[in-house]
Amino acid sequence: MNNLFTFNDTIAAISTAQGASGIGIVRLSGKEALEIVDKIFLPKDMAKPSDFKSYTLHYGWIVAGCRRKPNIIDEVLLTVMRAPKSYTREDVVEINCHGGIVSLRSILELVLANGARLAAPGEFTKRAFLNGRIDLAQAEAVLDIIQSKTEASLRLSNEQLKGALSDGLNNIRKSILDILSLLEASIDFGEEEDATKTKNGRLTSRIRSINNQLKQVLDSASIGRLLREGVSVVICGRPNVGKSSLLNALLKEERVIVTPIAGTTRDIIEETLDIRGIPVKIADTAGIIEPRDLAEHEAVNRARRYFGKADLIVLVFDASKSLTKQDKILIRKINSRPAIAVLNKIDLPLKIKKADLKPYFKKIVELSALKLKGIGALEKALLDMVLGGRPIEAEPAMISSLRQKDCIVRAFNFCAEALNLAKCGWSQELIAESLKGAICSLDEITGRKVSDDLLDKIFSEFCVGK
Ligand SMILES: Nc1nc2c(ncn2[C@@H]2O[C@H](COP(=O)(O)OP(=O)(O)O)[C@@H](O)[C@H]2O)c(=O)[nH]1
Ligand SMILES: [Mg+2]
């Protein structure tokens, strides 16, 4: 894994977001990166990039055409990072130019015309992985950092990039390897009848300890995924109960139009809140029950879809009015899905009491979206439902993706199988086979053993330029 791959081509891409901005970066990586910029960079002191020292910054211009009559494309700063101490472990050049679309594209085109190839999504990070600078879990962390929605998920991804997860898994892997070598020694050399019994006891306790460690990693998965992916919450309720007002109150801004006219909200409005580090994607829906026209018909369909796929439902009632038939229909629709009832408009004289809803909901929150009273209580109720009593603290070796979780589950199952075989005194070859299965599953997380298809799939989620 640690040997350098030799890629014959040099890749290039715009590494900053597309659109007008202060600066933009075109990045090159590969054997010819310096040679290519030699042809297009005109430094103030007329030196050549291929003579530049690593980790140095140079002022000059990107030019097209010959050096005597250059056509200036942009004024830039050029950074050189030589192999192997670079992001990809290859020669890397970053051209810091002005962040206009035309400037960035012109420089990229020039770089491509001079011998570079346009990088595929995630190809720089893929090279970093293939060249052994980072493992697959760390490569995934790079993507997570870019996509982090809250500070807590950013912290988790940074731990993973530093190698916390990989270190934890490598320790478990090493313990399994230790057992395997013991097993193999006795497979080869045979064993006395008496000694086998005590040895079996030791063997089962060692496998059990590995099982416990894997279980711990697995337990961290749900919080890890929660921090990374967040939860989706849908706000439902009949028209005019204050759904849009509630979303505005949660967002602390006037995001959605609120009027006393029923049917004001026709589209789904979706925003992400940060509740104690968990990204909560919250959607306000149209409260229409009987659509009057095509637009309302579509609004109802969309609301249904959101209702169907949300992790959690917030059903809003107007506490200043008695429960209506429409309210009751919605209560029935909740069935046994995770839901919180919100009694809104408690600033007005009340017609519904908490007790009226007790039979249907585990959590009921009274609030006033208009007067901003009780919003904190709703946030707390949301968090309680989502966490189900688990602590929110991010552990260092936390798994964050479904892919990683699948691998750990497989490793755990293999170990559980090995434990059973050992307990029942089955042959050591069989136990060894199961343990090897566990190692293979762990290796898929760090990428020690991974198929090209899976690599392609993982890196295709990256943006071009990363
Ligand atoms: N008194 C009072 N009025 C509210 C409260 N929440 C919303 N409203 C009013 O109820 C009406 C409907 O609100 P809106 O958020 O558009 O309801 P939606 O149709 O469920 O989205 C508006 O006139 C709001 O000002 C509240 O807590 N107290
Ligand atoms: Mg509304």
UniProtKB/TrEMBL annotation:
Mg(2+) binds at S244, T265. GO terms for cellular component: cytosol. Residues 230-387 form the TrmE-type G domain. The keyword Plastid does not apply. GO terms for biological process: tRNA methylation; tRNA wobble uridine modification. SUPFAM superfamilies: P-loop containing nucleoside triphosphate hydrolases. NCBIfam families: mnmE_trmE_thdF, PRK05291.1-3, small_GTP. Homodimer. Heterotetramer of two MnmE and two MnmG subunits. This is tRNA modification GTPase MnmE. It comes from Candidatus Ghiorseimicrobium undicola.
